[in-house]
Write a structure and sequence with these properties.
Length: 325
């Protein structure tokens, strides 16, 4: 991958070019505020008319296979966090005024066409560069309307970066932008996998889920439509309100996820060179605190994954009674 840090005058921004043999495209990181920088994606190349239809036939939708995918994604998340942790906060990365380049309009190789990728800026998407890869429709079509990336973005810059990156500036704005992109994409993908998890759970126990979904939808309509007259009904449904969440929550699985990511972070993040890299007591030195990643999973990644599951399930039944797949 060719990577260059460029800058634009309109709008001023950070840019990473990613060239492939098919196209030359790039990625722009701009910032509206210091806390919550803004990525912008553009792409100029178009689809070839002769391109063959590409279909992904590899899907295997069972809770076991989806959980295997979540486990594999832990590696991407841990590695991208480890990469990001080597740089300081680097405020300039997020400052649209810090660099400028006349007439630049950046773009990134076509992403977000797959059902397991979610754009951070859906209104500003580039044209596809590569022929579209069709995924089998395994989710209810309502899945396309669920995108909680604004929360992922906020969580990353507000809750993860301050704990992950040292304060200060080491001048590596380009690498910082690339690492942020990798982290955000890995986190977003993992969290939105909640749609697949939810679909598996629904298919395994449709009656239980349907009852819990209907109760929750009823509870929500009570709050919205009859906050006072429906008070008694609300109290009854209050007990049911969390039924959907408790149905899809597996505390033991969550504990083992946290334990596993902590162990993986110890393994992948251990500084392995010679004794010089051990601290005074001779203990191992880690690039990031292993418990930090376990905490990020426990406090953010798994709760947001569950939020996606709830969002999906609430829309999974349409109220006319017709269902998806
Ligand atoms: O594995 C599941 O059943 C999931 O729903 C995924 C997940 C997770 O985010 O890792 C979320 C909720 C469960 O309590 C356990 C794990």
């Amino acid at each position: 991958m060719e990577a260059k840090l460029l800058s634009a005058s309109s709008p001023p921004s950070f840019v990473v070019h990613m060239g492939t043999k098919f196209s030359r495209s790039s990625f722009v990181l701009t910032s509206l505020t210091r806390e919550f920088p803004v990525f912008k994606l553009h792409c100029s190349a178009g689809l070839s008319k002769k391109a063959k239809k590409r279909v992904d036939a590899s899907e295997n939708l069972t809770l076991k296979s989806v959980r295997c995918s979540l486990i594999r994604q832990e590696d991407s998340i841990i590695f991208s966090l480890l990469e990001r942790a080597q740089y300081c906060y680097n405020e300039n990365t997020y400052d649209p005024e810090a660099f400028s380049m006349d007439g630049f309009h950046g773009s990134l190789v076509g992403r977000y066409t797959s059902s397991d990728e979610h754009p951070f800026f859906p209104d500003d998407l580039p044209n596809h560069v590569l022929p579209h890869l069709e995924n089998p429709q395994v989710l209810h079509p309502i899945a396309d309307t669920i995108n909680i990336n604004p929360k992922v973005w906020q969580m990353y810059f507000k809750n993860i970066i301050p704990k992950l990156a040292k304060e200060g500036d080491d001048g590596n704005c380009r690498s910082t932008a690339i690492c942020d992109t990798m982290c955000l994409q890995a986190l977003s993908k993992r969290i939105h996998y909640g749609k697949y998890v939810a679909e598996c759970k629904y298919r395994a126990s449709p009656d239980d889920y349907e009852a819990a979904i209907r109760e929750q939808v009823l509870f929500m309509s009570c709050i919205q439509i009859k906050p006072v007259a429906g008070y008694g009904l609300m109290i009854n449904n209050l007990q049911d309100r969390d039924r959907l969440m408790s149905l899809l929550t597996y505390p033991l699985v969550e504990e083992s996820v946290k334990k596993r990511v902590e162990m993986k972070t110890m393994t992948y993040g251990q500084v392995v060179k010679d004794d010089a890299f051990k601290d005074e007591e001779g203990d191992s030195v880690y690039k990031i605190k292993p418990s930090l990643v376990a905490d990020i999973y426990g406090d953010w990644i798994m709760p947001l994954t569950k939020e996606v599951q709830v969002e999906y399930l609430l829309r999974r039944l349409d109220l006319d009674g017709s269902q998806g797949n």
